[in-house]
């Protein structure tokens, strides 16, 4: 099998431009903390994973440690109406 991925939007799909790969992280949480995150995420119509990323990005920004090279949070779900 060829190691090149030819799907549109993949890392090798656009010449001269690399899409940054998302990192996976195993996170162990107290069940009560996870439930609180779940409720918060549901209130804002997000997944728990997206909510954790928002909270971490906000904390990095508040601590003046946000990386300049970090891309925007990927938009998910249904595209906006035109």
Automatic annotation (TrEMBL):
<feature type="compositionally biased region" description="Basic and acidic residues">
    <location>
        <begin position="59"/>
        <end position="68"/>
    </location>
</feature>
<feature type="region of interest" description="Disordered">
    <location>
        <begin position="59"/>
        <end position="82"/>
    </location>
</feature>
<dbReference type="InterPro" id="IPR010985">
    <property type="entry name" value="Ribbon_hlx_hlx"/>
</dbReference>
<protein>
    <recommendedName>
        <fullName>Arc-like DNA binding domain-containing protein</fullName>
    </recommendedName>
</protein>
<feature type="region of interest" description="Disordered">
    <location>
        <begin position="1"/>
        <end position="24"/>
    </location>
</feature>
<dbReference type="InterPro" id="IPR013321">
    <property type="entry name" value="Arc_rbn_hlx_hlx"/>
</dbReference>
């Amino acid at each position: 099998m060829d190691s090149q991925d030819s799907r549109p939007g993949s890392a090798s799909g656009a010449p001269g431009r690399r899409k940054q790969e998302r990192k996976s992280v195993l996170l162990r949480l107290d069940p009560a903390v996870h439930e609180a995150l779940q409720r918060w995420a549901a209130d804002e119509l997000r997944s728990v994973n997206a909510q954790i990323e928002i909270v971490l990005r906000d904390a990095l920004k508040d601590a003046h440690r946000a990386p300049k090279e970090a891309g925007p949070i990927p938009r998910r779900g249904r595209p906006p109406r035109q």
